Amino acid sequence: MHLTVALKTDLRTWCDAQGKNATYIAQRCFTISKTNTYMTNLLSGCEEKPKGRMAMLTSPLIMSQVKVNLTSQFGLERFQVSLRQKYSSTNGPSDNFMWTDKNNITYGLNSDLKWTPNEPNDWPTTGENQEEDCADFTGETAGISDSQCTDPAYLRRALCEYREPSMVFIPYFVGQSVSSSSTAIISGQTDIKVIQLEHCAILCHVFEVCEAFVYKKTQLTCTLLFRVDLTATERIALDEATIYGY
Ligand SMILES: [Ca+2]
Ligand SMILES: [Ca+2]
């Protein structure tokens, strides 16, 4: 008799088989695309597996793990990520940068995003002149810079992210909610009425930047979060609440 125990998902098995060119973190596989592309293409090169996209690095913890496990080996090579600036921007080079999916839907920006020092700068002209409205991630420093979208000199490989078809949420903090001052809260995604816990998980799964959520079982609401690595000052005791994350 032969028993098979599934210790790894298909995605994790594939990810591990990529060797140094991939790393599995928080139920997703990060890889480097095989081709250089213009940054205007938000999917190109990240189609080797289902549920692929250019990476959305909304959690400082995931950013640092991607650096340590994957990109540090590439030195100062820069990789495209899914961060875009709206052309209506008028308030300086950092204004209006948002995580953006392949359908051009925007999801706001986590305020704890780690920019590279002196970035974004809209190089070469100071201020916001629409010269750098795309963004990339530097391999060994793990900072993000604004960058040219269509200049052929800026053709780069992408940092890709493949998510599990069905991601499992784990209760991280039981009897606790998030402080309203926390930078983890996704703007506008607070106290959403739901029927049951599973609806929070579905909302978080389809909202591209969501990494975690607070579910209040009496109020039947959920609040979506950029990350689950909340500090003690970002959490408040609340019997009916639980904070779930990937
Ligand atoms: Ca710009
Ligand atoms: Ca720049």
Supply the CATH superfamily name of the largest domain: Mannose-Binding Protein A, subunit A
Average pLDDT rating: 92
* CATH architecture identity of the largest domain: Roll
How many DSSP helices?
Answer: 3
Spatial order of the strands forming the largest sheet = 10-14-12-13-11
The CATH topology annotation of the largest domain reads as Mannose-Binding Protein A, Chain A
Strand content: 25-35%
Euclidean distance between termini CA atoms: 35 Å
Bound ligands: calcium ion
Please compute the radius of gyration using only Cα atoms. 19 Å
CATH class of the largest domain: Alpha Beta
Low-pLDDT runs of 5+ residues are: none
The helical percent reads 10-25%
Characterize the overall form.
globular
| Count of the separate structural domains | 2
Largest sheet: 5 strands, antiparallel
Q: Could you tell me the number of beta strands? A: 14
Helix and strand run: HEEEHEEEEEEEEHEEE
Based on secondary structure, the structural category is alpha+beta
InterPro entries: C-type_lectin-like/link_sf (IPR016186), CTDL_fold (IPR016187)
Protein name: C-type lectin domain-containing protein
